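Annotated sample (chain length 656).
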Amino acid sequence: MSEGKKKVDNRRTIDPAALAVIDKNTANGQIETAYERYVNMQPQCNFGRTGVCCRICLQGPCRITKKSSKGICGAHGYTIVARNLIRAISGGTGAHADHSRHMLYALMEVLEGKAPDYSVEDSEKLKRVAGKLGLEVEGKEDNELLEAVLQQAISDFSKVTTEPCKWLETNVVPERMEVFDRCNIQPRSVHTTIAETMGATHMGVDADPVNLIFQGLKTSLCDYICMHIGTDLSDILFGTPKPVYTEANFGVIDPEMVNIAVHGHNPLLSEMIVRVARDMKEEAEAAGAKGVKCMGICCTGNEVLMRQGVPVLTNFLSQELPMMTGAMDAMVVDVQCIMPGVKAVSECSNTRIVTTMAHSKIPGSYHVDFSEEHAVAKAREVVNLAIEAYKERQGNEIDIPDVKNKVTAGFSLEAIEDVLSAVNADEPIKVITDAVDSGQLRGVALFAGCNNLRVTHDNSQITIMKELAKNNVLMVATGCAAGSAAKLGLLNAEAVEKYAGEGLKEFLDTLNEANKDKLKEKLPLIFHMGSCVDNTRAYDLTTALARQWDVDVPKVPFVASAPEAMSEKAVSIGSWCVTLGVPTHVGVVPEVTGSALVDGVALQIAEDVYGGYFMWEEDPEKAVEKILAALDERAWKLKVHKQTAEKYETELSTGW
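Output written by the structure step:
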């Protein structure tokens, strides 16, 4: 029986705080949220779900059926599925390009003296980035170096010449670049490639599904490029994250404070709001509050968590629910993953929704037109709106679920290497490779991606994380997957004692002992590496492991998992993971199953060409089996190839 025919209820989460709010709302029957909208949407369209619905031209929509095996133009199902897939990759790449381009513009304004509230916070990161790009660092002032870095970023965004994009060439192993050349998927630049993809998918252009898929993979490499640029520029501007300690879930809300949630993906305003909020205690006290408290939702929340230690409120799917506690005064949003439904909920909850970007507005909301030139003034304007809302909520009913967990976050690659260097100062990454070689660890897994009501909210993420911990897998996490771990108590040392297998526990104990004079708290079960755009930090770890073993990435026991993938950005991230050689589990079957050809390329053929491949699996327990099998296969092959090289005194094979 299909899910559409089952009885579907709205309790599609394992988060106890979210459940408490949902249950109260269900009993009162007052406010519609994503959980109710999902139930009302059933049954959903199976043509769209399998990718065989085409709306690219105005003759459609065309749906592939037994009766009608081609679109009106003659497009086969495999062409329709491939076009839809790579348009999604292009959309995700465009979203990340938008984020990173904004960081680029902000730093250009810093250079020109037009953004006086910002400055280069991390000169060392600036030098590291410049050095990696091959720029001359010695004797250069920060501004001179920054200008050179920004010019290179502009080139990677917009050049039309054929030399490799620097942020790709300098951040992956050389063997990957050889594969890209061989397959003709070297991108000219981010903007050029997005335009190529949209042109190729226009009605009457490319009908070859394999050619289309390769164009999509080229586009996904542009996603990697602009994401890496965004992370590097954010670190330069705001500082490279180091371990921070805070809490997560609805229990972080304080009814006696002016409560502000920052939500979206761009740290330019949220960083300023957090700083300004700390300076506006007197204004808050004048309104009767103890002060101003900022909390984070989604990846803007991850950004200020990693650098400022701001508490995590929730992740994507339950973004509407904190307002229903009655104690949220403002939700400040920028771009990406913001549900339009937050506005209707805010009207029932005395919360002010404040949009801040010219291209990301919600009808009926407050709008503060953010500009880098007046960043502090705009941040003060936002905080004042929240203070006014606090005055208005006095006497209203407040019901905050008493659920929160300790969080240790802030694990940039630099922070991880710093922890590892306490064990091996000369070769910090060798601490991990030695643990894998000895069998202490089975490998490394990245948890990334969103939330999706097609599966139970948070359940797949948490189930897989706990099982991999038991099986001695070292884990890193980003985005809303990291949000799940934070809310439900997996980003602290207590979780190590509860869930880690003996090998993982011994590994972390060794690191804790070596760092006992450096860290305030013991290491968590999972290393939180940042927001969605920071998935490139995790891939940098993969590259570091490959260089330590002196192999190409497809031989590294590293797996990516997106148990609740939802957005176009998740499609583009997963695609570059595969193209860059990583087995990638996706816990919500994407819209490609309408074509056995396209599905087969993703699940099987991709491995032959690129070394990475997809694994679709919605059952979290079966997903664990597939992830462990992928890690074990790579660890076994690596061991055999090393033994063979030693026996015959040859170079280690780089093939897979």
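Annotation: The radius of gyration is 24 Å.
Annotation: DSSP finds 25 helices and 16 strands in the chain.
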